[in-house]
């Protein structure tokens, strides 16, 4: 039976995670969930971000479901570096998976894009690049200050995430992978990415490929998001592109993500892309769809593809049935989704 | 009398630059233009990208007007690093200025944004960050390959571009500057940018300020581009954000840019954001508006604010008068713009 660690976190995190658990319990009865108290609240209370003992315990689970961590009073970087990125790196979650669909019933911001037309997934590298934490500064707070950030890219790290992208594309209908980088400026890393991409592409003659500079991709995600199937890119570019993809498909309120260690050597982590939204926390009005879709990714990763499909179908029905402007109640949405997923 | 170096370049470059010159000649009679043959064509013919002698000659001009350089047969990086970036760095063009307006008459892609509502300018740093060319690789073409790219940021470089952004904001109606970075992950460079921003902000109590992470800014540029006035950001973030800003305001076909050395110690360079568009080159159908708007930025930089305003008014009239779907003729648009600008 699947053993899930649950980090509900701060703000609306607990509210949306409760719905994701409802749905999980419905489609996978008997799932064992253990709650871990991590995030801004714990940091404020104890000064702890992620004690080693907790990291070890988390490692013993099949997957982690996370709500949202953070609030405006925590200094930037503390929870990001100390918790979220720490988990991605410690658990070698090198596939940061971010699907974007424009669901029927959802009013996207783009006038010329119809529901159902956008169905893409960004495979963002999760353990390298500018997120490596390599950098420093000299002469801080003087006119001579210099600060650096270094993007570290290995053939090992780049090739494995590209392989994952091609494998995913091979299972999809359009079978297309777009590499996004900035090879004309970041020539060293760009060349590594491009050569690894070409090598893996050569092993997948059945998959179409294209390359785009990140600035062009950012533009085309707005003007023609329909053109993308699987996008593979580095850590920072993926961070930016997935927020654009979320924006054009109805907002981060609907965007799910998985930080995946495909080999299963470590637990993968699943979380909505949205944050803790302190402004609406505690009111029971947060949309739990992103958290529930993240639970569907979790199910898929653990091999429960059929249960995942049922959750996705429930979300599709929920979104198609919404009337724009009518406020939602978090718990009611969760109830409907759970009921639909087992109906 | 203003001495302008003209680099028409490749593809549609010469076609659109010809219109920009028509307009310049109309509003600033007697402007002296010297043509320089640089770009893909020259590289193919001679192997030269930017001979030192040409760089020296360019330095003797008041400004450079560039069309577009490149074609798909030139390896990535050759013209970008050897020509465009070389000029930005050699001429210390640290303010990369990219205004975005949703002009009346232009159908933007966003359903809920009305013409006239978007009027923002991105002040992109132009001489530092990941564009410094600092990086390398080891064990190339082996499984052990590692490739790095380093973002270099100095207090000197960061503070001066932030100062420029505040100065611009002070001359605008809304007087607001948004700093975009990724302080929660790129903690060293992010901290430098944030501290320099706060220091300059303290000298401008009349200017409103806000901070956004780059992923959030990428999203808000799609969902709420109206909220921005002046955006200041680093070289790479600016590259990406300005393409999004262009996309939501009608595409890079309308986007102008200036690579500016505000002190005038070196010539500033003005160019449309679009590329050489080989697919439509030579047909006389390219839209010269971006090139003409770039010429307006040139006029402004050289102190001809009134002439610049007349060019902008001509563009406004041109765009307001267009019928969607009716093909345009490059030269006719140029004629109309030149005539309107002096009417
Ligand atoms: C919170 C932050 C560290 C994180 C990232 O940059 O990866 C977030 O933006 C995301 O996309 O998951
Ligand atoms: C061509 C390339 C070097 C350039 C850049 O990245 O700055 C372009 O994308 C731009 O935005 O002017």
From TrEMBL, chains A, B:
Q: Which co-factors does it depend on?
A: Mn(2+); Mg(2+)
| Molecular-function GO terms, alphabetical | magnesium ion binding; NAD binding; oxidoreductase activity, acting on the CH-OH group of donors, NAD or NADP as acceptor
| Domain Isopropylmalate dehydrogenase-like stretches | 3-337
Tagged with keyword NAD: yes
Q: Name one Pfam family in it.
A: Iso_dh
Keyword Iron-sulfur present in the record's keywords: the answer is no
Q: Which InterPro entries match?
A: ICDH/IPMDH, IsoCit/isopropylmalate_DH_CS, IsoPropMal-DH-like_dom
Q: Which UniProt keywords apply?
A: Manganese, Metal-binding, NAD, Oxidoreductase
Domain of life, per UniProt, equals Bacteria
Name of the molecule in the record: 3-isopropylmalate dehydrogenase
């Amino acid at each position: 039976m699947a053993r899930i660690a649950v980090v509900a976190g701060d703000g609306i995190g607990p509210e949306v995670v409760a719905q994701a658990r409802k749905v999980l319990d419905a489609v996978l009865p008997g799932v064992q969930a253990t709650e871990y108290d991590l995030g801004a609240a714990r940091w404020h209370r104890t000064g702890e971000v992620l004690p080693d003992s907790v990291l070890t315990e988390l490692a013993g689970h099949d997957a982690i479901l996370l709500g949202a961590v953070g609030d405006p009073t925590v200094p930037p970087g503390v929870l990001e570096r100390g918790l979220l990125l720490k988990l991605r790196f410690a658990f070698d979650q090198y596939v940061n998976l971010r699907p974007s669909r424009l669901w029927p019933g959802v009013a996207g911001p783009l006038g010329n894009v119809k529901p159902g037309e956008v169905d893409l997934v960004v495979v963002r590298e999760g353990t390298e690049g500018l997120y490596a934490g390599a950098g420093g500064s000299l002469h801080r707070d003087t006119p001579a200050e210099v600060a650096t950030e270094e993007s570290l890219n290995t053939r090992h790290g780049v090739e494995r995430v590209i392989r994952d992208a091609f494998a995913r594309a091979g299972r999809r209908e359009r079978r297309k992978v777009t590499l996004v980088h900035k090879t004309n400026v970041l020539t060293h890393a760009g060349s590594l990415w491009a050569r690894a991409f070409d090598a893996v592409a050569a092993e997948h003659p059945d998959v179409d490929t294209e390359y785009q500079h990140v600035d062009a991709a950012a533009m085309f995600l707005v003007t023609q998001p329909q053109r993308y199937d699987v996008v593979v890119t580095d850590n920072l570019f993926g961070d930016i592109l997935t927020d654009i993809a979320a924006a054009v498909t109805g907002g981060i309120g609907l965007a799910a993500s998985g930080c995946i260690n495909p080999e299963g050597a470590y637990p993968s982590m699943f979380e909505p892309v949205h944050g803790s939204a302190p402004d609406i926390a505690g009111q029971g009005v947060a949309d739990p769809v992103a958290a529930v879709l993240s639970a569907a990714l979790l199910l898929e990763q653990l091999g429960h593809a059929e249960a995942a499909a049922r959750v996705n179908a429930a979300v599709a029905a929920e979104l198609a049935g919404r009337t724009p402007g009518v406020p939602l109640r978090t718990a009611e949405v969760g109830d409907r989704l759970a009921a639909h997923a087992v109906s």
